[in-house]
User: What shape does this take?
Amino acid sequence: MKAWTVLAAMAVCSLSLLAQKAQAPPQAPAGVERADEQTRIVLDVTRVNMLFTVTDKKGRFITNLGKEDFEVIEGKRPQTIGEFTAETDLPLRLAILIDTSNSIRDRFRFEQEAAIEFINSVVRPRQDKAMIVSFDTSAELVSDLIDDTEQLAKRVRDLRPGGGTSLYDAIYYACRDKLAMDQPRHKFRRAIIVATDGDDNQSRVTRDQALEMAQKADVVVYAISTNITRTETDGDKVLRYLTSETGGQAFFPFKVEDLEQSFENIANELRHQYNIFYRPEPLKTDGLYHTVTLRVKGRKDVVIRARKGYYAPRM
Assistant: This one.
C-alpha cells in the first residue's frame, strides 16, 4: 500500500509540473534579457493611437490631409478623433531580423548585403536606434539597440548560417523584450525589418502569437524575401500576412541592386505618417482584439496602410 501511495504521489507531482510548464511563457532566446513583467507592455486604457501612411494608387505619399479628412470605425461604430498630428520625423526604433538557417544558405550573402544597405540608408546617429537579431534553430540577440551603423554592419557581417528556422520566436522576443520599452509609446516609430524566406520550423510560439505581440507593442513589420524563384511560396504568404496585418509591406527583390528603391520606400514611409488618437466608444477593457478601419472621407483614390486593430488591456 505504501509503495502505491508513493507512486501515486509522484505521478500527481509530475502531472502538476507538466501543467505548470505548459502554462509558462516561452523563455527568452540566448542573449536576450527578458523585460520585467510590470514594464514590458504598457497600454493606455483610455485611448488608442493609430500611426499610418496615405498614398495614391501609384504609391506616392499624400501629406496634406487634416483631421477633418479622416474617419475611424471600430467594429461598426464611428469614433470621435481626439488628437491628430502629421508625424514626419519620429525617432526610429528598429529590429533587423536576419535568417541564418540552412534553408537560405545559398542566399545568405544577399541577405547580409540587404541588411547592411538598409542600416546605412535609414539609421540616423543620435536619433534612431537599431538592433540585430539572428535566428536559426533559436533566436539570438547579436546587437542591442544602438545608433552606431558601423558596429551594426560589422555584427551582420560576422553572422554565419546553419540550423533550422525560428522566425516567429525572433519577432516575438524583439517586440516583447526590446521594441516596447521606450516610452511614451507614441513618440517613437517601431518597426521590424526581417530578411528571410518565411519558412518557420523551429519556433516555440505560433505565427499568430508573434503577430499578437507585434500588435501589442505597436510594431510594424516589413519583410524582404530571400525567395528568388519568382514563384510564390508558403513562406511568401506568411510574410505578406505579417506585414499586412501590422501595416507594413513585403518586398520580393531578386538581386541586391533591386533593393535600393525598396529601402528608400521603407525609409520614406517611416517618416511620412499621420497619427490619430481616439477614445474607444464604448470603452472596453476585455483584453480582446478590436478591429479598426481608417478611411479618407469621400476618397477612393487613396491607399491607407495601418494596422488593422489593437488589443485592449484587461482590467
Summary: Residues 54 and 163 are 40 Å apart (CA to CA). The radius of gyration is 21 Å.
